[in-house]
Write the structure tokens for this entry.
Amino acid sequence: QSALTQPPSASGYPGQPVTISCTGSSSDVGGYNYVSWYQQHPGKAPKLIIYEVSERPSGVPDRFSGSRSGNTASLTVSGLQAEDEADYYCSSYAGNNNLVFGGGTKLTVL
Amino acid sequence: QLQLQESGPGLVKPSETLSLTCTVSGGSITRSSYYWGWIRQPPGKGLEWIGTIYHSGTTDYNPSLKSRVTISLDTSKNQFSLRLNSVTAADTAVYYCARLLYSSSSFANWGQGTLVTVSS
């Protein structure tokens, strides 16, 4: 199984929206409704912010949203805030009880 | 509230076995709705799923690591463990234990992580 493809970096100004993509295949992202997104601040453990493509765990701000089109999933942060500056990782179920992560995207708030 | 904490040696010699333990508090590891996993992150790099163990003891491993990995439960101590043998410098990473939500294949609770360096 290959890692999912994410852009290495993304950026935006406070208050603006930014979208991060996560591209896989029909064997993972496109084949199952089990795409997750994690936020990781420097030196910290990842935090789940989206599961099942577009669901938010309790306590995650609603400015975070997820979607999918074909084999590409997307995370959108609407109304960027300074504290959103972090690394973001997608993951997907890949069949046969396997999981795969993306390479990560560093989000900078300008 | 469920909490996880990794423990184990921070330095392992090449060709030896890396052994880590995850202690779970706030819930029983044998609860039928709980599943557990290990994930690692080399310095400055992305996350890699290592494997998953279910409350029954059944395991699934990343195909790229399967020949070297063993994950097990210790129900008497409410812990689960990771063993990775024949390590090389490429296995240097922060190792995280986490709880897997099986219904969504997402990791909902994470330990703080522990850095393991492979070096002679």
Summary: The interface with chain B takes residues 1, 3, 32, 34, 36, 38, 44-48, 51-52, 55, 57, 89, 91-93, 96-104 of chain A (CB under 8 Å). Chain A has a mean pLDDT of 97.
